[in-house]
Design goal:
Largest sheet: none
Number of domains: 1
Low-confidence stretches: none
Number of strands: 0
Structural class: mainly alpha
Order of helices and strands: HHHH
Shape: elongated
Radius of gyration: 16 Å
Length: about 60
């Protein structure tokens, strides 16, 4: 098993702490599970992100068209 160290902003670290408390799992497990999900279903996850961004900014895109 490989161990990695990453740097994230303080606000992202706080959000991870909130989510780990909400789900009742350690932050390390939350991050590991999230990465595993991304690696198992990368296109699905990417498509969800694209859909979210497009929906969130739909009005702006409409005005710019």
């Amino acid at each position: 098993m490989t161990t990695m160290t990453i740097s994230i902003s303080d606000d992202r670290a706080f959000k991870l702490q909130e989510l780990s408390a909400e789900f009742g799992v350690p932050i390390e497990d939350l991050v590991r599970i999230s990465l595993e999900e991304l690696l198992l279903h990368p296109k699905h996850t990417f498509q969800q992100t694209v859909d979210y961004v497009v929906e969130k900014n739909a009005e702006l895109y409409h005005r710019l068209a």
